[in-house]
Amino acid sequence: MDRRDFLKRTITIIAGAAIPASALEFIDPKRLLAAGSSDYKWVFLADTQKCVGCGFCVKACKLENEVPYDADVSRTWVERYVICKDGKMRVENGMPNPGFGINADSPKAGRDGFTTPQIDIGEGRHVEVKEEDISKAFFVPKLCNQCDNPPCVQVCPVGATYKTADGVVLVDRSWCIGCGYCIMGCPYGVRFFHPLLKVAEKCNFCYHRITKGMKTACVQSCPFGARQIGNLKDPNDPVTRTIMYGRVGVLKSEYGTKPQVYYLALDREVR
Amino acid sequence: MMEVHGEVWTLKEFFCYPNEYIYWSIQIVMYPFMTGLVAGAFVLSSLYHVFGVKQLKNIARFSLVFSFALLPVAMMPLMLHLQQPLRGIHVMMTPHFTSAIAAFGIVFSTYGMIVASELWFVYRPHFVATALELKGTSDRGLVDTCRYLLFSALTLGSYDISEQALEKDEKAVGFLAGIGIPVACFLHGYAGFIFGSVKANALWMTPLMPVIFICSAVVSGIALCIITYIVTMEIRKFLSRRMSTLGLPSYEELQSAEIEEVKLTSRYLVMFLIAAITLELLDLIFRGYTAVKSWDILREVIYQKDFYKIFVMQYGMGNLLPFILFKLPGLTVRRAALGACLMLFGVFMMRWNVVIGGQAFSSSFAGFMEYALPIIPHNLETVKEGLVGAVAVIITPYVLFYFINKVMPVFKFKGSH
Which residues of B touch A186 (CB under 8 A)? Predict the structure, then answer.
């Protein structure tokens, strides 16, 4: 074969191969995964006016998601805030209490409710605020914000945590190396190490339930409707309507995480 | 009751979120400390190889070998820290590059290869000589046969030690040391980036973090080289007095060489110390001046809770005191050793105050956490992330150095470098 022939044949082969090759397309596996669930975008709505701090949601969550019941970690929790009229913290044992102007606690993640006016300030110590000094007091449910720009996903060195197309951040328990970088990266403190599995653990909106048309365990167990889950892509979803037409707040927007848990009546003191 | 990771050493005060604990404990203090020593020791050796600071000849070879001994130890704290240490290799297999940790394996192995190849070029004549010498021996015992196999493997089949070949080696060493400096700085600046880029942590998040880390790394690396150099020289001095048959240089020769080397090296030490302090203070002043939302709690941590650790132990004992020791006229070996030890302590405290100090307050900005270092372990967790684990990390490089020194002798060696 001389050079002329060689070039001719090469051109023919390339031209011939180009036609079927142009039909080939590299498919991003993410797109395939997203195909089924693209009609959903899960969001959460918490109404702090309705929350009474009973702790049913925490109980239900721990049982549903098999987070050891007595371990001092939880996927969701309830915080109590007691704001004083003078905006200061109480004095405890004669020592000024530098809690930066707020009395707040979440003993056992609020699992057993708040049955005493004693505020837990850690290491077995408590303070009590006199009723006449209180200007307002309220409860705030907390859970993973399933951020649209999740720092935990960004910092995972092995890609063991990822955001699904329907907006939920999940953890691959078989791939997590347990470095704790995601725990450090979360400004909301929702992540922890699972005491038995020794991998990063967090709220996932009960993904196993919501993808089967059920409510999350916490929403299901809340007797007052303080917690609601909805689909932002469904314009008739009551949660979507509240977010669209109501006045809602999010936590710590300054971190640029774009949280997807919305709050009604969010007080400025909420941390 | 079920114990949660971190619960045993975390003391919480006021309002912290329920899941917050000191998750990054002593081993994450050790990690930047050890990588800092690696980078610092390498930079010191490069001062001789690249910039031709001739007086540093002895300490340069020493610090190169020592930085090689430190290298695997930079990884050790990470393995002790991981909840799933067996999966640590996933970082290499499925690196997720948006994470600052993902490139660690790549940067670290690149650096490791540079140091290894540089060492190979430096010690090639020694490998060849030893291999040839053993080859000539007629009745080798088991030990010598093993040594022969090891050394002939180490030559990689290159037995040419002619003038020209050695000259080429020297060029290669210069080149490797040259690219080694930015890589060493990258390796460590990168450790700083791991912290500096955590936006959720008010104390860590500053673009100055990588630079601060590099400067203090060089300080610690040089300080450690000074200490170890002094210790080995003292041993040699002791030996030369006791056993004149060993063929060591005379006591006086060693004495004068030692103090000269130490004096010069300490000059670089002080230079990098000043750079490190300047940046750290700039960071502190800037935070106080801009006083963003987090400043209330940071001020409480820096000036109240951690005052003793930051201003007394780190800046006072770890920086100011050794600075004075080094700057007072008539530097002696003993004073230099003390100063270098204090400097090392200062850098360790800096790492501590960054890593543990960064977790000393809750993300709620309304509560504090305190780390109680587990001293007497009662389970695997408190072994790994307690005093025992930390001490193991400190001792390992010396053990490794002992063995590496058998193959690549730092002192009894007449090479071109």
Answer: 200, 363
